[in-house]
Amino acid sequence: MSANPAGPTLELTDLKVVYRVRGIDRPVLRGISLTIGRGETYGLVGESGCGKSTTALAVVGYLPSNGRVTSGSIRLNGREVVGLKGNALRRLRADDLSMVYQNPGQALNPSIRVGDQVAEVFRTGGARPADALARAEQALAKVQIADPGSVMHRYPHQLSGGMQQRVVIAMALASDPALLILDEPTTSLDATIEAEVLDLIQHLQSEFNSSVLFISHNLGVIAKMCERVGVLYAGRLVEEGPVQTVLNQPRHPYTVGLLRCVPRGGVRKDHGRLDTIPGFMASIEEQLPPCVFADRCALAQDICRTEEPPMHWITAGHGSRCHFHEKAQDLPRATPSELGQPLTVDRSATPLLKVDDLAKQFNQRGRQVTALAGVSLAIWPGETLGLVGESGSGKTTFAQTLLGLVSPTRGTVELTGRVLPPRLFARTQNDVRVLQIVFQNPDSALNRRHSVRRILRRALKKLAGITGAAAEARLIKLTEAVRLAQRYLNVRPNQLSGGLKQRVAIARAFAGEPRLVICDEPTSSLDVSVQAAILNLLVELQAERKVAYLFISHDLGVVRYISDRIAVLYLGRLMEVGPAGVVFAAPHHPYTEALLSAVPTVDGGGRERIKLNGEIPSAAAPPSGCVFHTRCHRFLGKICEEVVPPLVEVEAGHQMACHIPLDELRRLQSEPREVSPGQAL
Amino acid sequence: MSTAAPAVRLQAAQIARRETLRQLVRSKIFMSGAIIIAFWIFCAIFGYRIAPHDPLDQSFPQLVGPSATYFFGTDQLGRDVFSRVLAGARDILLIVPAATLLGIVGGTIVGLISGYFRGRVDDVASRIVDAVLALPLIVIAVTVLVALGHSTVTLIIVIGVVFTPIVSRTVRAAVLSERQLDYVAASQLSGERAPYVMFVEILPNVMGPIIVETTVRLGYAIFAVAGLTFLGFGVRPPSPDWALQIADNYTLLGAGTYSWTVLFPGLAIISLVVAVNLVADGLSRVLER
Fold first, then answer.
1. What pLDDT does B288 receive?
2. Are residues B189 and A405, on separate chains, in Cβ contact within 8 Å?
3. Among A294, A428, B238, B263, which is most buried by a count of CB atoms within 10 Å?
4. Which residue of B has its CA nearest to A425?
5. Residue A348 CB burial class (10 angstroms; 0-12, 13-18, ≥19)
């Protein structure tokens, strides 16, 4: 293990990996060189398909059966890893390496108790069974699991996602590895839980002194966690350097483009459109020019297609593989920022949709689970209402109830002043047409056996009543509206990229001129550059057609960008409703405050994170009084435990459910909170 | 690239289908099964014509062992066993696919309805399915055939009806997981009616399991038909059906060593069942990956 204690922990030199697809070797990693020093956290960032995970799998010697390293070397503690087999590879994985995957639920064996699973790692390390169990309990305590003794006896499915990921991290650190690889460790978690797990990783790292390879698509997370970052594109490291330098003074057009795609710093749709990166991530089968980014780069010249750019070192540690790296920040915008006439929303008119005291209880194995506990709100034509909250807050149930997929226990949904029947099949075809949805996951939202043309023509027939030749004309118009090239019409969805699929789904929702489209996390499965394009499209469609959106998302940057008003949901109850700018600026509800503080920002630093106590309580047994009191950092006392705070208008258009008066909140939230050294960036 | 792409993409669906076919052709398991089945189908159609002797002709010497004249010997009535084995494929290969098809169609409909509507509909359907599954197929079939009198059509219907609940279970499970996907909700939200959602949206996506189930059922149907025939409730004499041959001659096994009268029809049944299972195996590996 201590072959070369002075050298770097991990050293990749010109690593090339190919995948064999239909008998042809396709390059996936095109020569990656990087080093990770002792105790250092190195971030690897890039969009899906860029080779992030392949890099990690190559390091642990776990490439899929059609993949292999063709050249280059991987040195861990000075020892060559490429070519290790059998026992040597097993020892390496057991002693020197650990990996944490994105989905903790799949990383744990569902039929073995947590304690036994963690203890197994110690037993592999040679500990006696009783000893291993004792050390497993210590390991669980180290990852800040409250009451590790009882967690030891539970099965993985009895733990929440955040707890599961803590267990996985405990197992990963059990062997005291030289290198810990974290592959999107918090992507499947809620923002508040993500923030806690990230804090935990930072804390543990200082204790264990492991080096970390941190893979993420989220620039904010990378900014928070890493010292150095490498930007990966099409299997090549295009830029590398200290995190703050790369994110603040990027020198590669791809990095510049990526950073511009992310809605941040409070930018809103009426400020301008988001920039995008033209074209698509190259598929594995495409031939790429010497500069892999040249086809999508506005700065590209002839030299980019004839000569491979070397790594230009701007400073000792900051390099960019771009012939024109000094001009990178002047990259022209791919999407003009200019806007049409901003929509004005008339809130004195009859609301498009009015929800009154909507509640839904599910019967779950004899227990009553309250998914929605009386939600009232209104949406006016042409506006976007953002709906935010952690998973389990009732966002999806709310959407399903509006659509008639789930019938409410009580309460009504009114469409332009008329009460809608609760069940979908009882609604008229016109009601169905007016209320549409764009789902989170376009893979499952489109029938994989039907062509795009068939999907859209059927939607036109049912929603707009158009058939025959007229339908074909409308189909063309519709695809133009969602910027979908017509050559995709004869294709089945699985041959389209995620962004294109989502465009098809949006086209289907817009087939019958809807008035309200529910967007249920429409961009959360997409890469940031694609997300920007989809958000732009939604904003454009809204401006053209005065359609209203109910935009559900856990990404507060996205919600802030697209929303006119925001509603914050917690355990099926509205905590706060108001204009986007007002809700996101103090004074706001303590829960909103905590949610906002949990988001890691690209700009780094700034806000100090508020720790919420524990996780979202079970909806089967919600806390008494104010449901948030068990986790509230501004907890007042008895009144919060006993009296339910009503949702009242605290200022014009701004409703809040909190016992603390607005002025008091304003005073409290303007105070700078003490910043503990461990949390400052 | 942009000009070449559409032409290539247009055929993508066909390419995917061709790819599946290519994988099947490459699969040794699938191909060996398919060749055996093809052989028996050929015999079912042309068996009487290609047989060296008339399968029903009783004028040959009785109970002669396998020889150059009578490849598989002759039976106690003086019929040529080889010719009877070739011709004997006809009845079973008519009844088995018909019965299976009936069971698959019935089971698919019940499974789709049960899995799509869930709730009470599913509860009722599932209990009936459980009840039918609790009784052995042979018992139900014998009872019904005795009550209604036995004919080929009744035999087909009985086996088909008994298969319906078994198939419906497989289909229901596939539909239940398919039902969770958003495209089903999206279809409902365009105002589609239940039959359209079930048969146009969901059905194409559960064809994989249905095809595999079909081949598995074919194997069981061969057992069922052969078993019932042996018991005297299936194919009737003088057909040269394999199970009938066994039924006619099995008593000889105790008296002497006229094993060829039973062995060759028995091997024929086994080869067909094994072949069907090989095809089922090959299909499920390719379709379900």
1. 66
2. yes
3. A294
4. B191
5. exposed
**What's the token pair of residue A231?**
């930007």
The pTM is what? 0.85
If residue B23 lies in a helix (H) or strand (E), which one and from where to where?
Answer: helix B12-26
State the best of A402, A447, A451 to mutate against chain B, taking most chain B CBs within 10 Å. Answer: A447
Q: Which residue of B has its CA nearest to A517?
A: B189
**In this complex, which of A286, A449, A495 lies closest to B205 when CB atoms are compared?**
A449
Q: Is the pLDDT of residue A141 over 50?
A: yes
Q: What is the ipTM of this complex?
A: 0.82
Task: Name the band, by pLDDT with cuts 50, 70 and 90, for residue B82.
Answer: confident
Q: CA-CA distance, A285 to A653, in Å (whole number)?
A: 54
Domain borders along chain A are 341-424+515-681
Q: What is the CATH number of domain A341-424+515-681?
A: 3.40.50.300
Residue A616: per-residue pLDDT: 79
Using a CB–CB cut-off of 8 Å, the residues of A that contact B are 286, 403, 405, 424, 429, 432-433, 435-437, 439-441, 444-451, 458-459, 462-463, 487-488, 490-492, 495, 505, 508, 511
Query: In the prediction, which pLDDT does A249 show?
Result: 92
Alpha-carbon B183 to chain mean position? 33
Per CB-CB distance under 8 Å, the chain B contacts of A522 are none
Q: Residue A161 is encoded by which pair of tokens?
A: 């996602």
How far apart (Å, rounded) are the C-alpha atoms in residues B143 and B136? 11
Question: How far apart, in whole angstroms, are the C-alpha atoms of residue A565 and residue A654?
Answer: 9
The yes-or-no verdict on residue A675 having pLDDT over 60 is no
Domain residue ranges of chain B, discontinuous segments joined by +: 24-58+67-88+239-289, 93-234
**Beta sheet of A24-36, edge-to-edge order:** A24-36, A10-21, A67-76, A79-80
- Rounded Cα distance between A72 and A54, Å, is 14
Residues A443-465, mean pLDDT to the nearest whole number: 92
Instruction: Sort strands A410-415 and A353-364 into parallel, antiparallel or unpaired.
Output: antiparallel
Give yes or no for a contact between A358 and A400, defined as CB atoms under 8 angstroms apart: no
Residue among A170, A186, A181, A178 at smallest CA distance from A57: A181
- Residue A526, pLDDT score: 85
Rounded distance between C-alpha atoms, residue A188 and residue A197, angstroms = 12
Provide CATH code, domain B93-234.
1.10.3720.10
For the segment A577-603, what is each residue's pLDDT rounded down to a tens digit? 999 889 988 788 999 988 888 887 776
Residues A655-677 have a mean pLDDT of 77
Q: Is the CB of residue A587 less than 8 Å from the CB of residue A669?
A: yes
Strands of the A367-379 sheet, one edge to the other: A367-379, A353-364, A410-415, A418-419
- What's the pLDDT score for residue B252? 77
What is the token pair recorded at A133? Answer: 């169990």
**Residues with Cβ < 8 Å from B167, sequence gap 6 or more?**
B103, B104, B106, B107, B108, B111, B210, B213, B217
Would you call B191 and A429 a contact, using CB atoms and an 8 Å cutoff? yes
- Rounded Cα gap, residues A169 and A163, in angstroms: 10
Of B13, B186, B188, the CB nearest to A508: B186
